[in-house]
Amino acid sequence: MTQGRSKILRNLAFGFVCLLLGILVAIQLKSVNSTENQLLLQNTRTEELRDELIALQNSNRDLTTRYSDLKDYVAQLESQTASTDENLKAILEEKRKAEIYAGLTDVSGPGIIVTLSAGTDSSIRDLDVRLVVNELRAAGAQAICVNEERMVAMSEIRLGGQYIVINGKPFPSNQPFVIRAITRPDDAERALTMLNGVADNLKFYSIDTKIEKLDKVSIPKLRADSPAYQMDMLS
Q: Are residues 80 and 114 located together in one domain of the fold?
């Protein structure tokens, strides 16, 4: 009687173990299948995004080329027409000035180059860059760029993690920032180096300010893919 009961208990225990192993194997297979499906979906989405990116890049290149061609054609027509119309000449001159101040053309002239460099244990803040840009504007700068990014009314200078974002483009905050401006060099230098002025303020935060005065400073136009260039909400 005792042996029969022991045999029954062994059989039940063996059956329970088999059932448990079956459940574990089923769960493992389900997990493997789920992982494979997720990887397949991710790979498919990655390929779709890559194809979309390539298509957008090709479209942007074609549009940029078309814009350049049309711009040259318009300039040629304007030149031919203006030669016989003084009023049109004046209008085109106003248009040229408006394009300069809107940042749509490359410009050059006398000016200043300001290089901001952070110390070993510090980094440059977005506020530091804005202080210099605002001081140069107050000193009469007619065109300004920061790290080759043209400054216009819609330009942004803001903090983004470990970067400073300018016109939508990120720059590491621990790297030097080069600010160029077309302005009266002596006036700009005096504005930046006055007692308790911008340079003194930056020095307190371990930011070195190097100033160079030049007879000619070149400043690029606004990037065509810059948010400040693309934004158009006026009617």
A: no
Q: Which of 147, 132, 155 has its CA nearest to residue 205?
A: 132
**Per-residue pLDDT tens over the stretch 89-100:** 777 777 777 777
Distances (CA, A) of 83 to 79, 93, 96, 216: 6, 13, 16, 30
CB atoms within 10 A of CB 114: 25
94 occurs within a structural domain: no
Q: Are residues 112 and 213 in the same domain?
A: yes
Asked whether the whole model's pTM tops 0.70, one would answer no
Residue for token pair 């002025």: 197
What is the domain range of residue 72?
Answer: 1-84
Alpha carbon 222 to its chain centroid, in Å, reads 12
Does 49 score more than 80 pLDDT?
no
* Residue of higher predicted confidence among 228 and 16: 228
